Model the fold of this input.
Amino acid sequence: MKTIQIQAEQFFELLKLKDTSMWAIFSQMIDGNEKEIVFTDHEEKILFSYILPSNQEKLEEDRKEFSKQFSDKLANFN
Done:
C-alpha cells in the first residue's frame, strides 16, 4: 500500500483557499488502489491517518460515517 504524507495545516489552508472539501480531493486521488494518507504537523509528527479506499462507493460510506460521528461529537459539546 502506498503511503502519502500530507502536512495538515497547509492541506486545510489549501482547502479553504480552493473552497473545496477534503472528500472532493480524496475522490480525485482514487485509482483502484488503497493508499494510506498520513497527516503530519509542521514538525512531521503524525496527527492522524486515513486509509483511502480503492473505490468511490467506499469513500462515500466513509464520508457519511465521518459526518455522522462529527455531528454526534458536536451535539455532545452543546
DSSP finds three helices and three strands in the chain. The first strand starts at residue 2 and ends at 7. The helical segments are 8-18, 22-29, 56-77.
